[in-house]
Amino acid sequence: MLNGKIGTDPGADTTAREIEQTLAQSRASAERSIALYRVWIVGAVGALAIWPFLAGGSAFSFIVSSVYLAYSLGVLAWTHRRMPRWLGEATLLVDLVSMAVFYVVLSRFDGSGETPRWTLYILPSLMMATLLSNFLRYSGRFAIASSAVAAVLFLGVSVSQDDFHPAQVSTAAILVVSGFIAASSGARARQNLDTFARLRLLRRYLPKVAVERVLEDPRAGMALGGRSVTVTLLAADLRGFTSMSEKLSPEEVVRQLNAYHATLLEQVERHGGTLDKFIGDGALVVFGFGAPEAPGSDHGAAAALACARDMLDGLERLNRERAQAGQAPLRMGMGLHTGLVVAGNIGVPGVRLEFTVIGDAVNTAARLEGLTKEAGVPVLISAETVARLEAPALRELPAMRVRGRDEAVRVFTLP
Known about the structure:
Oligomer: single chain
Number of helices: 13
Mean pLDDT: 79
Helix content: 55-70%
Shape: elongated
Number of strands: 8
Strand content: 15-25%
Largest sheet: 8 strands, mixed
Order of helices and strands: HHHHHHHHEHHEEHEEHEHEE
């Protein structure tokens, strides 16, 4: 296989923008959820703080909880009206700083003159719970930065309120590590979304085999060249649709073609075929990709024949729907041939590449399809395909001249 240098792909920029838009929507949804959780937590804390106040204790905790509940409700309302990008970062910093400030000033207002030691055990837990929101924000740099801020705040509060102990450093280190874990989680989410977006985009425009090649080895999958494989090809074309479309609007032509293509594609996927391309009202389908190159392999011949039968059945169902809508019936022709092709990328790297199959076998399948008009049958099957079938129930027709062949070829059709 030839290797080509791959230039900048405009589609990659579009995919990157779509990924960023998806992440932004996810962050917005996450911020609304975080704001709602904040209201619930602060409301629960306020409910607990009201009991000491009613018992004649300090009102400081209750007042702080009430103010913070009002702030939380304001943030929640803001997230439902607009979502500035910095809102998540700002609210997270406010949460962390307010926790530290609360524990520092608590001793001045609770009447005892010192902060209860047990509250210092709760501070890192609350900070850790707050930092968990970074797993929903997909911002690696801010996850690390905010965890570092939390660690510094915790050390500052704990050392100022109590004697230094090495365990404080361990707790601060855990807070920092949580930031790196959140950053890694965000990077993994972005990578998974990138893979999913590219896979979805590739499957929309490329054959299944081409998508698998790109996912297995992106560089080799996007390089020029190909490999020789024996496959069964099915060339299909509508009969008389060109003259029919002259009486229809362009929108109606596209609508009817889409209905026809959908009928074909349903059977192609059902029988494991690979759609190489749509060509107007025609299609080229490949069977046998990935089949073992063994003497007993049918190289997709049986699947192609079964698909051709079901395509005709599907067309009959579509024609019944068209008759109910007052539309003329559609007729199609198909040519099946098994032979050697080169499957790979053709085009200009960095500008336009197309994964396709080329070779004499492709031409033979297309020419057999064209001969269905002359033979007066919907399907013509070459002897090369029939030879790979087990006890085929087919009817042989008189040999026909195929353009590009010196001798007439044996052809078969459905009984």
